[in-house]
Every structure is written in C-alpha cells, then in structure tokens.
Design a protein that fits this description.
Blueprint: E1 21-25, H1 29-40, E2 44-49, H2 55-59, H3 62-80, H4 103-127, E3 131-141, E4 144-149, E5 154-158, E6 161-164, E7 168-170, E8 183-185, E9 198-202, H5 206-218, E10 221-225, H6 237-249, E11 253-255, E12 260-265, E13 270-274, E14 279-282, E15 284-287, E16 291-293, E17 326-328, H7 339-353, E18 367-370, E19 375-380, H8 383-387, E20 393-399, H9 404-409, E21 415-421, E22 427-434, H10 437-450, H11 454-458, H12 469-477
Parallel strand pairs: 1-2, 1-6, 2-3, 6-17, 8-15, 9-10, 9-15, 10-11
Antiparallel strand pairs: 3-4, 4-5, 7-16, 12-13, 13-14, 18-19, 19-22, 20-21, 21-22
C-alpha cells in the first residue's frame, strides 16, 4: 500500500552515505538490488537472508516457473510443426510419437538454473563488499536489528537505514492444506518425481494460469478451477478471452464460476470439492490462491511501522514506512507483486535514504508480463481505464493474424492494442498478446515512460517483416485527426 504524503526528495535524507550503515532484511530482488545501490553510494551494507540470495523470485517463483514454461513452450513447437509442413521422423522413417517430458530431468535443470542465478548474485554482492549473514532478522528499534544466524548465534546490528524486503509466501487455507506430495503450492512443484497424470489447478490468476498451461504443454491432463467468470480476471478482457480460448482449444478443462471449498487427499490422488457440491478428482492439486506477506515476527509493529489489514508494510512512493529511517520494498509491501517493481522500490529506497537524486515510483510506467502461450504484456492505462473514464483516450486493436511475420511463424492467436490521449496522441498504455510479448511491449513502455506520441512511435523504422511492425501500424491508426 502506498502512503499518501508529499515526497520532498533527498533533502529529507537522514544520513550521509559516506558514514552510513545499512541493514537489509531479505535478499530477494528488492533486497539485493538495494544493497548494490547502497554500496555504490558508499554505505556499509549488511544483508540478513534466510532462504538464499535472489529470494522466491529466483529460487521458487519467477526463475523456476519461467524455466518450466520455456520447456513446455519448446515442446509445443512440435505440435505446430505439421502446420508449417514439417513432419518429424525417426532414423527409420517412422513418424515420431508424441514428445514426453521427463519431469525429473526438467526439474533438475530448473533448480540448477535457479541455484546458479543465486550464486551469481552472491558473487556480485561479495565483489561490492556487501556482508551477507545467513539467518533471520527483527527490528529492536528503528536503528537496531537483531540477527539470529544459522548456527544459533545472535548478532546485534546498528543501522542508520533499515530496509525490509522479506517477500511473501503462498496463501494456504484450512480446508486445503498442502502436503508437498499430492497437494502442492507453486513453491513445492519442483520436487515432483513424475509428471502429474491429472493436475487440478485451483486459482486462475497469473500463477495458476501460467502453471496450468505449462503442465498442459508438458503432457499432463489439466483442469483449471476458476472462481470468476473468466481466467485472469484482473487482466485485459480481450487478452484473457484469447488465453482462455487457447486453453480450451489445447484440451484444458476450464471450470468458470467454480469456487473451491476444500481439497483432500485420496488413496491414489486428490479430490477438489466445489462450493456448489461438485467434485473434481485428479492425481495432484496445485494451489494458486494468492500469497501473504512475510511480516510477522519482524518487530515492525513494536517499533511503530504501520501495516495494512492484510499485513503488508505501508510505504510511500520512495519506499518510506511510517517510521523515519525504515524503508520497505517488494511483495511485503503489496504495491505490485513483480520482481521488477521490488527491485525498483529497493533502488529508490537507497537513493532516497542516502541522499542521491531520486524519482518516485511510477506505477503507470510498469510493464508486466504473463508467461502463458501466447504471453500477455501490459503497460500504462488499461482498457478498463478508458471504459470508465479514468483517462480521456482512444484505442485500437490489431489482430496478429494479419501480420506477415505471424503468418510465417504459424501464429494465429494474439493482438496488439494501443491507447493514446485524444487530440494530442500521447501514448498512455498498451497490451500485446503474442509469443514473446515480453519483448514486444518494450517500445510501448518507452513511449509511455517518456510521453512519446503515436506519430513518434509510427515514424520509427521497424524491420519488415516483424511482429513489432504491428506496434507501429497500431500507432499509425491512432494518428490524431482533429
């Protein structure tokens, strides 16, 4: 939650970076990025980390899940090969049977990549002279942190600046308790020894949708239980419709308006009971029903740090909490659960605390991506903002099926949508639904960040043929005429 108050800039800084000490709780994106900035500004930095550098983003969430999804995406290319005139045969000329994922091997690669990324972060922090303590920390006061280390020893750390970046953990319910074997959170799936025969995914938000499609692509039968009218209820409606259509077309069973009541283990699998009395039997259940901030037991309330009703740390746009000298970043703040936002919050916090020039967090310029197939990338104002009058803008949507590069690659699903202010043509937002939409959203993000007009975007050369050509074409169609 963002606190509503003025941001006076670096004049409010408590300390001088040349003589400052910084203690950071949590080594995820918000923590390690903040540590690098603080060290660069001359501070003595200590990071207290419990689970491993990189946090959930690197070890159990973003890096592992996107690696898993990349494997599923690679396998899906075999499914569309015949549409491009390619038939796979073995060395004797017989047509190759369906590809099968060896989940043990896949998970080994996933976890190895995550561990390698964590080690790289550790080497970078060490090279910059940052001290990393393995353990847990809690605030004794706004300027003192107690660290309980792995060996049981306790250290008291004096700090002129404290950053809380402890992240969040999967939400579990009393009626659906994960056991790590058949009933799983998204952090537990990488221990599965074999591919689930029938995976029931509870929750159709970003995590649920991404992993449902990943396991479908790997070869599992998948049922997605959604309590809402459609999957990805918080996203652009046109984009969510495309994804749900793709899910169904590829064989996923999507149960809309179906709220989970409980999940129980059976002799040979699981049963998911819905509130309307229906039951869905499967071999495994994946719970993707949100997350809760890891803020309990940190001494925050005792030193006066304000928390929201959900337990998130309340911060302003430069990551300050309600207590002078204490900052917070990442999923524990509830601002926007993205690794990129956590990292930016951490960098902004240190710049502000240590007297460097700083620009407050601008959520309108945040680009986000959902790693389904096709991907959904967004930035700036949304279609809903246009429809309810939040912004006076107009939009255009171009289907990718008309793009020549899309035709060559066999892409039939997806679109580019662009929004611009009426009259002046300033780009205020956009949506891309396409393979690698995470790359295609970048020019739109640049336009939103720097206030470019549709004419400036359209007047920039694009490669022909290219998917990015549709971004320029959408901009041309939004050329102001009045």
């Amino acid at each position: 939650m963002l606190l509503e108050r003025e941001v006076p800039g670096w004049l409010d800084s408590r300390v001088n970076s040349r003589q400052s000490s910084v203690v950071i709780l949590g080594g995820g994106p918000g923590g390690y990025e903040a540590a690098l900035v603080a060290a660069h500004l001359g501070a003595a930095v200590t990071v207290v980390d419990r689970d491993g550098l990189g946090g959930a983003a690197v070890l159990t969430d973003c890096v592992p899940s996107k690696t898993l999804i990349s494997t599923a995406d690679f396998m899906s290319q075999f499914e569309t090969a015949s549409d491009l005139g390619v038939h796979l045969e073995d060395h004797e000329g017989d047509e190759v049977a369906d590809s099968v994922a060896e989940l043990n091997a896949v998970n080994r690669r996933v976890l190895a990549l995550a561990a390698a990324q964590s080690r790289d972060i550790g080497r970078r922090l060490d090279a910059d002279g940052i001290t990393v303590l393995r353990g847990t920390g809690r605030l004794l006061s706004p300027s003192q942190v107690e660290a309980t280390l792995e060996d049981g020893s306790i250290r008291t750390l004096d700090a002129e600046v404290v950053l809380v970046s402890t992240g969040a953990t999967p939400r579990v319910m009393a009626t659906a308790q994960p056991d790590g074997e058949r009933i799983l959170t998204w952090q537990q799936i990488y221990a599965l020894p074999e591919l689930p025969e029938h995976l029931v995914v509870v929750g159709s938000g970003v995590t649920g949708a991404e992993l449902a499609q990943a396991y479908l692509g790997l070869g599992s039968r998948v049922t997605l239980v959604s309590s809402r009218d459609r999957v990805l209820p918080g996203e652009d409606a046109d984009a969510a419709t495309v994804i749900e259509d793709v899910f169904r077309k590829r064989g996923m069973e999507v149960l809309g308006r179906s709220r989970m009541a409980s999940v129980e283990r059976t002799d040979d699998g699981v049963v998911v009971r819905l509130e309307d009395g229906r039951e869905v039997a499967g071999s495994h259940a994946l719970l993707a029903v949100g997350s809760i901030p890891q803020t309990a037991g940190l001494g925050l309330e005792e030193v006066g740090v304000a928390l929201s009703e959900s337990g998130h740390v309340s911060v302003d746009r430069v990551s300050r909490t309600s207590v002078r000298g204490v900052y917070a970043a990442g999923d524990c703040t509830g601002v926007l659960p993205l690794a990129s936002v956590a990292a930016m919050q951490g960098r902004i916090a240190m710049a502000h605390a240590l007297g460097d020039a700083v620009a407050p967090l601008n959520l309108r310029a945040v680009s986000a991506n959902i790693f389904t197939d096709p991907e959904i990338a967004t930035v700036g104002f949304s279609q809903k903002d246009l429809d309810d009058g939040t912004v006076d803008a107009t939009g255009v949507m171009l289907p990718l099926a008309t793009n020549p590069r899309a035709k060559m690659q066999g892409i039939t699903d997806g679109f580019v949508k662009l929004f611009a202010r009426k009259g002046v043509g300033t780009v205020v937002g956009g949506v891309v639904v396409a393979p690698k939409a995470s790359e295609l959203i970048y020019p739109v993000t640049l336009a939103v960040q720097h206030g470019l007009t549709v004419d400036q975007l359209a007047g920039t050369f694009t490669v022909y043929p290219s998917l990015s050509g549709s971004v320029a074409e959408a901009a041309r169609q939004l050329h102001p005429t009045d």
